[in-house]
Every structure is written in C-alpha cells, then in structure tokens.
Amino acid sequence: MRPTVFPAGHLIPVSYVTRITHVWSPLQYVSWCSSYNKAINYLVTVPKYRIQATEIAKQQGLLNRTKEKGKNRRSKEEIREQEEEVIRDIIKNKIDIKGGYQKPSLSDILLCQIVLFPYYLSSYAAWYVCWMYRFTICREEYGEEEKLYLIRRYMKMSQAQFDSLEENTKQTFLEKQLWIKENYEAYRKEREEEMKAKLATDPKMKRYRRWMKNEGPGRLTFIDE
What we know:
Structural class: mainly alpha
Low-confidence stretches: 1-23, 218-225
Radius of gyration: 27 Å
Strand content: under 5%
Order of helices and strands: HHHHHHHHHH
Helix content: 55-70%
C-alpha cells in the first residue's frame, strides 16, 4: 500500500491525527512506566533510602522473620526476594519522585491532554484574570507559591524541572528574593561569572583550549614515520 502524501499547505485530516494519537499515547504511557520503574530500581540501591525503608518495614512488622517448619518453610532466597519486594514497595509509596521520572499519570498522556485542552485553557484564563486582579490592580503581596512561580518563569524552567530541585535550593531562591526581577538578573550574572571562573581554572577546559589553539577541530597533521 502506497503511503498517503499531503501537499504543502494542506490540512491533515482529523482522522489521521486521531490514529497517530491513539498509537502514540499507549507508547508514551509505557515509556513513562519504564522510566518510573528504573528510578525505583535505582533508589532501592541507594543506602540512604534503603536504610530508611528497612526501618519503616521493621516498625510495621513486615520484616519480622518467624520460624517456619515443615512444607511451609521457605528458602533463604525466597525470604530475601520477599524482603526486597517489601523495601521496594515502601520506597515506591513513601518517596515522591518528581521531574522526568515521576509516577506516570493517565492525565499526562497526549490523548488525555487533547481531550482536556478546553478545560486547561479555561482554567488558565481564569487563573490569569485572577492574577492580574490580585497583583496588578489590587497590589496584593505575593505569597510563597506566587514567588516560586515567578522565579521558575524567570529561570525558564518547566514545572517538572523546578519540582525536581531540592527544597533547600528553593528556600535559597526565596531568601535571595529572586522573584524580584532586578534581584534575579543580578543573581544570574553572578552565577555566570562563577561558571566562567570555574571553567577558566578547570584542567580539562585548559587542555581543550590548548588543543583548539594548537590543533583546531579541522586541522590535519601529517607525521613522517
């Protein structure tokens, strides 16, 4: 069967968009589930979280080994696998993973996003009108949530990226009053200067600059044997 080609400037029929969405959405969800499981598998190996999960399991009586006799007696391997599963479940339920490895949600897949788009649009419009009324017209002071929103917008970070930051990092942003545009610009320039100074003293960067000066990316050197 020959593929259907749409000439430039022609609109793609809705049926084709629907087909693509129906195929992509399950794949998207499966990919997110895989990333989430990889994150859980990694956290299980981190001593900090593993020790905490083990303590919680002991407090809840989930790791109390009882003597088993007869046919019900399990091997050491079976006991170890069960303990690993208990620790994994505790980490999964107790730790809030944010960012690109967060727990997948059906509302985040493409198909649901398209269906819910009118709701999201109306919600954003209502939020924007409320923001303008409260902080532009009525001159209310920003709360912590509003301050963090402005900081995230200045940093051009997505919500998932910002949520993945440590809480003490966000607290530092608040202490520096980065929701004020002038303070943020000064902070950004300061960070840029720090990065330049760090790169200037980095041995790897020194070697790279020396190589670029002597050899260059497109220079060929012929050595007689």
